[in-house]
């Protein structure tokens, strides 16, 4: 299914359900078992409210500020490196930022290992290779790490801020009034950490856009009012991430001459909907200004899912993603200078998530004077 009308249908809970949709191999890597992605109805809305409580303006701003501080620190390290693979570096940068923001202690010696574990869950989840086995191992290790943390919080031996994800999820109660079991709580806290680190993909594409479209760099460097929002939206629309989301037909129905038999799996084409010719003028051109006139339709622009954040399966971290892309783009356009050496910047659409084959390499990094 592709296009805004199809997306609106796809998010109709009377037509489709999510329970039992994700294949076992994806649960063992990307999603984890028991997470919000597989819930429906009131159980989903109740669990989703827990996530939405973490996304107030003050919390989003706090993550933005923490991440901006780390960009300042990391560029000092990059200035002493001959070659910087931006994708790898940003994964680590975001891991340190989101762990602090979420109330998850992360000692310096652990940073590399925890970054690899969080990254493996989305970067290698769909690989048909030994990398997939590493992704499964990484999830088991991460769930053990975060499960121990959940128990520490509940026992009072660890006291993160009460507004933090670690506290909110550890203390969350289901519809029956029970605390989430250790495993489910760990899965849901990872569902905060992992997607935030995965914004590294959008950030690499933002760097690509600055390289390919110098006028965007000029507008960001000049501080043109509102342009950073337009730029971040267009990065998320224009470039690929995960291509589709899945649901299962609740009961038989017909739509526009197509039969949807009960139990059938249906895929919603995210990338195709974001490039729909009937919605977007010249969709294969990078034009941030198009968002000055976007109507805000929750079904024609769906880089991280569609519909209502509180009701549907739309990513609650969308505001975080926007701010992290804006921070990165502003920093790369205004705060540092660097060279982009010869490399293979063609996008590998066969991998999930899609990335430039070189992972975007920069060199001669210096702070702007």
Explain what you see.
By secondary structure, this protein is mainly α. It is built from 14 helices and ten strands. The protein has helices at residues 4-10, 24-31, 41-52, 57-78, 86-102, 111-123, 130-154, 165-170, 182-197, 200-212, 214-221, 227-238, 270-274, 318-335, and strands spanning 16-17, 84-85, 244-249, 253-255, 258-260, 265-269, 336-339, 347-348, 355-356, 361-367. It has a three-stranded antiparallel beta sheet with strand order 1-3-6. Helix 12 packs across helix 14 (318-335). The longest helix has 25 residues, at 130-154. It is globular and about 60 Å long. The mean pLDDT is 94.
Feature tags:
single chain; mainly alpha; three-stranded antiparallel sheet; 10 strands; 14 helices
Helix content: 40-55%
> Runs with pLDDT <50, length 5+?
none
Q: Main sheet, how many strands, which sense, barrel?
A: 3 strands, antiparallel
How many alpha or pi helices? Answer: 14
| Rg, Cα atoms, Å | 20 Å
β-sheet strand percentage:
5-15%
- Structural class, by secondary structure, is mainly alpha
Distance between the termini: 50 Å
Mean pLDDT: 94
Shape: globular
Extended strand count: 10
SSE topology string: HEHHHEHHHHHHHHEEEEHHEEEE
Trace the largest sheet across and list its strands. Answer: 1-3-6
């Amino acid at each position: 299914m592709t296009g805004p009308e199809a997306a609106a249908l796809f998010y109709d809970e009377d037509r489709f359900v999510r329970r039992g949709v994700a294949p076992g191999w994806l649960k063992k890597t990307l999603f984890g078992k028991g997470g919000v992605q597989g819930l429906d109805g009131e159980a989903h809305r109740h669990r989703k409210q827990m996530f939405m409580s973490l996304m107030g303006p003050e919390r989003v701003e706090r993550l933005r500020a923490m991440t901006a501080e780390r960009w300042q620190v990391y560029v000092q390290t990059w200035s002493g490196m001959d070659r910087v693979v931006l994708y790898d570096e940003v994964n680590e940068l975001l891991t340190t930022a989101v762990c602090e923001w979420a109330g998850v202690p992360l000692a310096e010696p652990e940073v590399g290992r925890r970054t690899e574990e969080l990254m493996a869950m989305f970067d290698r989840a769909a690989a048909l290779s030994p990398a997939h086995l590493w992704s499964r191992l990484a999830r088991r290790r991460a769930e053990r790490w975060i499960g121990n943390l959940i128990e520490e919080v509940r026992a009072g031996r660890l006291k993160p801020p009460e507004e933090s994800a670690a506290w909110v999820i550890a203390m969350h109660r289901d519809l029956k009034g029970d605390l989430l079991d250790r495993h489910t709580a760990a899965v849901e806290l990872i569902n905060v950490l992992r997607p935030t680190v995965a914004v590294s993909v959008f950030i690499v594409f933002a760097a690509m856009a600055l390289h390919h479209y110098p006028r965007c760099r000029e507008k960001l460097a000049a501080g043109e009012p509102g342009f950073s929002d337009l730029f971040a939206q267009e990065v998320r629309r224009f470039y690929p991430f995960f291509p589709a989301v899945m649901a299962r037909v609740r009961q038989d129905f017909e739509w526009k001459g197509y039969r949807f038999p009960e139990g059938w799996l249906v895929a919603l084409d995210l990338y195709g909907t974001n490039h729909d010719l009937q919605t977007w003028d010249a969709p294969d051109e990078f034009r941030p200004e198009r968002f000055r006139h976007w109507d805000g339709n929750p079904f024609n622009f769906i880089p991280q899912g569609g519909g209502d954040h509180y009701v549907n399966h739309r990513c609650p971290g969308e505001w975080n993603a926007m701010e992290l892309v804006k921070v990165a783009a502003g920093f790369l356009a205004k705060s540092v200078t660097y060279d982009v050496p010869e490399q293979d910047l063609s996008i590998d659409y066969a991998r999930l998530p899609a990335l430039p084959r070189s992972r975007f390499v920069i060199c001669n990094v210096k702070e702007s004077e």
